[in-house]
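Readers outside the structure-tokenisation community will struggle with the description of the input data as it stands. What matters is that the chain and its backbone geometry are given together, residue for residue. For illustration, here is how one protein appears when written out as sequence plus structure tokens:

…
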Amino acid sequence: MKGRLRMPEDRLERILNEMRNEDVPVEEIAAAQARVWDRIADSKPALCAEFRADFAGVPGTLEEYPRAGGERTPGFAGALEIINGEAM
């Protein structure tokens, strides 16, 4: 990352946790979700084109990528490792 500043991972985790713990009205979250989905749906074909065929017609939501636990932090939902869902 030449010429770019890197944020320490622990600082990023603190910021993300603050965002997760914010008390946001349900209506505001729903409105933001609708704006994001509308933007994705109305986007030019080049945007996310490499993933469209893989996810076409698949129900679900966009979620934060889970992390496996390390020495200092627990993993997502206590996970010790992340396994591809198709491999299960």
